[in-house]
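Table S7 (text form). Paired inputs.
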Amino acid sequence: MSTYRFSAPLWQYPGEGSWYFVAVPEEISDDIADLTAGRRKGFGSVRVSVTVGASTWQTSLFPSKSGSYLLPVKKPVRVAESLTEGTPVETRLDLVDF
């Protein structure tokens, strides 16, 4: 399993809903794209296991128009880890099924 560690700010998607994301840094996104070429799921998503603080969960990364991947951060994680918009999120990301 490939593991990545990074810190990036939490941001809210503009528009309806309360979707919050962390953008995976470009260098890591490029590496993930290379490793998962031909094996991605629907919409180009990549299954991952994520750890932020004491919270660990499974989700999918989604490609953005800029070419980097976006990591959705659910409300229970934001509450448990006291994350607000703009907060740097120390993230451990493990690729699943690769």
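Next pair, protein 2 of 2.
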Amino acid sequence: MSRDALPPDPFAGDPHDPALSLDRPETVEQDSLSEAERDEVVADLADLAVYQALLEARGVRGIVVDCGDCGEQHFHEWSLLRSSLQQLLDEGQMRPHEPAFDPDPTNYVTWEYCRGYADAVLSDS
């Protein structure tokens, strides 16, 4: 089939043509975390493991976060939050993910609740 028989390219001359990325090597620069930010993420991962160990057996499925961008609550199951933090550590950013489907808010607690609960339990030991 000749090129003349094909319909015109709707992206011809468009610098934002999505097909252009197929011809070029990917040159996406990764964001990098500062040493202090990396330390915070590592500490958050360690805290998350403690919180999950203490609260999962009590029926808590994960953590709820009030989103400053959209003003809504986001419900993160333990494994999703852990993988997001690990991705932040590895890649310097978290990719968007699908929100929890119809979460029961009574199964999620805040990070602050987790911290207070862990402090209380571990201080009694």
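The radius of gyration is 22 Å.
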